[in-house]
Design brief:
This protein is an alpha/beta fold. Helix 2 crosses helix 9 and helix 5 packs across helix 7. It has 2 domains: 134 residues, Nucleotidyltransferase, domain 5; 153 residues, Nucleotidyltransferase, domain 5. The protein has 9 helices and 12 strands. It is 34% helix and 20% strand. Pfam families: ROK. Belongs to the ROK (NagC/XylR) family.
């Protein structure tokens, strides 16, 4: 009999609480991410509701970051310095512990989504996987040999500084770094860059070419540093404007400049894909974290 678990996807704009077995969502409750007090109280209430239907055996949390994911740290499960008002220092694990005996495992939302796409989605059969989300922010989850990458913190792909195109005068809007990649091509950055809601700009708008070039610069860095077999790209911007991915894929081989001799447009197309699980990648990843058990750490290439 499969273990019934719950997953929490805590995003910058919305929160999703789900329950089910073996990566299969059977119940879900969705609500906006507002203040920590209000949002986490709703999380706790949703978990209690699911637990009353049928006992929850473990919880996985896939959270926006930066967040402390080392279970040995005193501030495990705490949101670190974030531009999201009121959330710096918020404890996201405590409100989810609806029973003292309930195991809880936490990781970033993008590491969880990478895990879901690796196990059940567009990156099945790939050992090294990167999941990018481009939406309210830009984040990246990285798996090496199927294991989510941690270290001093966790990957912060969105704050990589990329090479800028000649003549591009946009200053960027990241409150920390201005023109890091998040400050150039996240949803709020595009609104500032375009002077309008980017969702209203059609795929033929010439401004998307520069966005695709910026994305291609990031992709080149990730390919050269992590050698992924698959890069899955989700989030509202990427899914809403799939032409960006196609354009970035055509630009990428030129940026690599023949250094990876067989990386042509065909290989680029095979490497860069949309998520198979779409918006369910995060919550399913959270359920997989729950199934892995509390304090999920790499030991001999396995999640234990």
């Amino acid at each position: 009999m499969h273990m019934r678990v719950a997953g929490i996807e805590l995003g910058g704009t919305k929160t999703l609480v789900v329950a089910g077995t073996e990566g299969r969502i059977e119940q879900r409750i969705r609500f906006p991410t507002t203040s920590p007090h209000e949002t986490l109280a709703q999380v706790s209430a949703a978990l209690r509701e699911f637990d009353a239907i049928s006992r929850i055996m473990a919880v996985g949390i896939a959270s926006f970051g930066p967040i402390r994911v080392d279970p040995r740290a005193a501030d495990y499960g705490t949101i670190l310095a974030t531009p999201k008002p009121g959330w710096s220092g918020a404890d996201v694990v405590g409100p989810a512990r609806i029973r003292q005996d309930l195991p809880i495992n936490i990781d970033t939302d993008v590491n969880a989504a990478a895990l879901a796409e690796h196990r059940l989605g567009a990156a099945q059969g790939c050992a090294n996987v990167i999941y990018l989300t481009i939406g309210t922010g830009l984040g990246g989850g990285i798996l090496v040999e199927g294991i989510p990458v941690h270290g001093v913190l966790h990957p912060e792909v969105g704050h990589i500084r990329t090479r800028r195109a000649a003549g591009d005068a946009f200053a960027g809007n990241c409150p920390f770094h201005k023109d890091c990649i998040e400050g150039l091509i996240s949803g709020p950055a595009l609104a500032a860059r375009f002077g309008c809601d980017p969702a209203t700009c059609g795929p033929d708008d010439a401004r998307w070419v520069q966005v695709a070039r910026d994305l291609a610069e990031l992709l080149a860095i990730l390919i050269l540093t992590h050698s992924p077999q698959r890069i899955v790209i989700g989030g509202g911007v990427a899914i809403g404007q799939p032409a960006i991915l196609e354009q970035a894929g055509r630009i990428l081989p030129d940026l690599l400049a023949g250094y990876l001799g067989d990386f042509d447009t065909a290989r680029s197309k095979a490497t860069l894909v949309l998520p198979k699980l779409m918006e369910d990648a995060g919550p399913i990843g959270a359920m997989l974290l729950a199934s892995a058990g509390e304090g999920c750490t790499p030991v001999h290439g396995k999640l234990t």
